[in-house]
Amino acid sequence: MPASDDLPMTRELTLGSDVNVMLTLSLLRRGAYDPTSRRDGSTLWRTSRMTTGAVTYRLRQPDRRVVLADAWGPGAAEMLDGLESLVGDDDDPTGFEPEHPVVLDSHRRHPGLRVPRTGRVLEALIGAVIEQRVVGIDAFAAWRRLHLRFGDPAPGPAPDGMRVFPTAETWASVPSWDWHLAGVDPQRARTAQACARLGRQVDDLVVTHDRDHAAVYRGLRSIPGVGRWTAAEVGIRALGDADAVSFGDFHVAKDIGQALAGRPFDDAELERVLEPWRPHRQRVVRLVALSPLAPQVRRGPRAPRVDHRNI
Fold it and tell me: Can you give the pLDDT of all 311 residues of the chain as single tens digits?
């Protein structure tokens, strides 16, 4: 029976191995006040825009190998069909050897961590573009402001204030003033709108090329303003690419170097050191980020801060 605003479509998924769904999907949340994601105790609420339309979904995990999903809205059936990929159940960590003490310790502390595959390329792409060259708090504030202004209300009984990722047509028509109010400079705004104007073609990359990540990245990098870092950020979230590394990030090379060698790396050294971990380099990056043993490099802003107190 189709989902309605009152009655959800439901699915109980038995996982093939232990998966920590909440930790795995925490990667998708863009800040504590992301209007597309809400954690309520052991329940995760999220929204998305599927090919078939908007969806609100609720995930609960009563057991390490069971996921209970409820979904509302026109995109409910499509979302539930892709549940295995979304929660990382089809992510295969076979062959991953943590080895380094920091990575090994974090691996033991976070059993069931997987790489999600949402399949929603445009959602991940717009989010990554907004995060280009700015500190996280400003990017998250921009994401929130733009969703509250242009996103659709979440279908079903979603928590108050949740919104659905705007349509490609809406992103393409956001006025320059609203980008400015959100703290997004003209260059990032032009890139986001170039992505949005491609609309369905962007999301279809994951269908056309299936698991050929390199082909998807080539397609993404053909868009003006989308480079290696942005494409990798999409791969980590939308493609389930366990080997993606965000080279060019202000922090990643420094943090990984500090954790693995006691000193910051540059991108060239990071690439060399991570090479033996192929095709699991993203696992190493994520585990180091989660590790309480990894010393952190002192932070500095990547671009001038903007005032988001009115958001």
Answer: 455 567 899 999 999 999 999 999 999 999 999 999 999 999 999 999 999 999 999 999 999 999 999 999 999 999 999 999 999 999 999 999 999 999 999 999 999 999 999 999 999 999 999 999 999 999 999 999 999 999 999 999 999 999 999 999 999 999 999 999 999 999 999 999 999 999 889 999 988 888 899 999 999 999 999 999 999 999 999 999 999 999 999 899 999 999 999 999 999 999 999 999 999 999 999 999 999 988 755 444 444 444 433 33
Rounded to 10°, the helix 121-130/213-221 angle is 50
Q: What is the maximal distance between C-alpha atoms in the chain?
A: 57
User: Residue holding tokens 């870092």?
Assistant: 229
> What is the chain's percent helix, strand, coil content, to nearest 5?
45, 15, 45
The secondary structure element, H or E, covering residue 58 is strand 53-63
Please tell me the distance from the alpha carbon of residue 262 to that of residue 102, in angstroms, as a whole number.
11
CB 284 within 8 A of CB 250: no
For the entire predicted model, the pTM comes to 0.92
Buried b (16+ CB within 10 A) or exposed e, 191-222: bbbebbebeeebbebbeebeeebeebbebbee
